[in-house]
Design goal:
The complex is a heterodimer of chains A (189) and B (230).
Chain A (H helix, E strand, L loop, with lengths): L33 H20 L5 H14 L1 H4 L2 H27 L12 H6 L2 H9 L2 H11 L5 H8 L3 H24 L1
Helix pairs in contact in A: 1-2, 1-4, 2-4, 4-8, 6-9, 7-9, 8-9
Chain B lengths: L2 H16 L6 H40 L17 E9 L2 E9 L5 E8 L8 H4 L6 E2 L6 E8 L6 E5 L3 E6 L4 E7 L5 E8 L5 E9 L5 E8 L4 E4 L3
Antiparallel strand pairs in B: 1-2, 2-3, 3-4, 5-6, 5-10, 7-8, 8-9, 10-11, 11-12
The chains are: A mainly alpha (189), B alpha+beta (230).
Chain lengths: 189, 230
Amino acid sequence: MKIQCLNLSPCVGRQWGVKTATDKAGEPRTAAGAGFDVLFDDCFESMKRLAFLLGADDPENIAQEAFVRLHARWSSLADVEKATAYLRRTVVNLSRSRLRHLRVVRRAPREPDRDAASAESLALANQAIWDALATLTRRQRQVLVLRYWADLDQQAIADTLGVAVGTVKATTNQAMAALRTALAGEENR
Amino acid sequence: MNDLEDRLRSTLGDRAESLAPSTNPRADLAIRLARRERRRPLLAVAAAVVVIAAIAVPVVLTHRTGPNPPVATTPASVPPAWVELAPFTENGVSMTAGLAIDRDGRSWCIEKVAAGSQPVPVNCYGVPDWGRENVPEDNRYVVSVSVLGGDEPALDYVGPLPKLRLFMTSPEVKRLTVEGRRGVPVTVNEVARTARAAYFLVVVKGDQRGNLLWYTAMDARGKRLAAAHE
């Protein structure tokens, strides 16, 4: 069975519950077993990136916390689809909580720590789009990230956010319109 | 797909890739999981503290409403002889717990009957001294924790309105401490907690002559189940 944390993400497919030659030797194993460890190895980075794209300033911490919570519920979620959907929901919710907290603490969230990010890759990124994303509402940003980075369909986005499919459609349209407006304003400056 | 969507995908992808991989995240996860395991007993203690706070606060608040609570003040207003508190299960049998008050209003007990059956005759009337409590005199309080479906009555205290504190000494045993007004423990009892046990905290106040003046009964979460002349 292939593990797909996010449709777009480069999660490596492995057999669940089976130790493979590519398992990281010497690394601590969790009590939940090999299936959980494989999922962690394959999906941790994707979940961290999801939190980062949603605007969280501590994506690693959020991804770790999501896996800790998954671990506590592993007996009822030991299924690829359920587990990855649970992870996505948890990351989205934790990112939202973190942003709320940041808003209270300092009104505007700071940019995530980019020490490790290469200057080259940052230069490649489209700064205007990135800045425009920051002007969207939290829900609009969530919808765009889940659709255009995670490649989730509308139903999956609705499930992740706990809203109706119609709300996803409407929010996507509003988000794209807001993005165009923000970009137009940027170009007119 | 339009240009904006392309740019959006590209930007998000580039930004995501710009995030450097974590170093040894599995070790970090192992530490977090171990820390979470260690915290579980502490969480149980915290939950126990919340429970006793829920019990103690209503008692204190009720006391602070005035020197005499807004309740019946004469023996003529004898409360009902049987006040249903809550259902519970004992050995798989559905039961109903109730507060039984003697007809003259001078004694009381927590009683249990099979669900749906008549509560009369009530044991604390028919069987002498079986779990029976006298209403205290001199405007004092009696505090009683009854554990039904588990152990026998666990604690009785007579005196001024006390502080109640609950400690979890292990996942199965909680310790209930009643303190006098100056913070001196006067009674300590350990209550074996069983899955099916039903806990009831009853506070009864008697007047100068030992006639029932006021009572309140709560479950383990501090939810008030019954009170005289609310």
